[in-house]
Amino acid sequence: MSDLAAERADWSTDGCSIAATLDLVGARSTMLLMREASLGTTRFSDFAVRAQLSEPMTARRLKDLVASGLLERHTYREPGSRGRDEYRLTAKGRDLVPALMALRQWGDRYASPEAGPTLAVDHADCGAPVQVELRCTEGHRVGPGEVEVSPGPGLVRTAS
Hints:
This protein has helices spanning about 5, 15-25, 30-40, 45-50, 55-65, 90-95, 95-110, and strands at about 70-75, 85-90. The chain is mainly alpha-helical.
């Protein structure tokens, strides 16, 4: 067993941030709606069509995303029509965009159609492709094998 594996033997996975995130956004339908929100979709019918979800599923998931603070609901009214809701990313939702971009980047490399990725994501200012990468808070690129894992303040240890 590696040193890290031996050290982690009594670390509980209770409170794992990855597990908690998957509990919140791990459903495929949820991630597709977040994809759409990150691409500027705001209206219910557009979410349902673009995410290819039934209206009941779209309604349920949008309600969950509002309740979890990833989206906020705003009412709009077109002339001569009743008020309708639109959904916009909150700060919490915008903070999920790098994770969505990382999934897209991985999918573009390993799961895209034979013809290539379905979307190109470029920097609006210079036109260069956008890539997600790991960086430390000092700004250094962090590559594979350059990460150290240690107990955080919320770690629970199991009785050995």
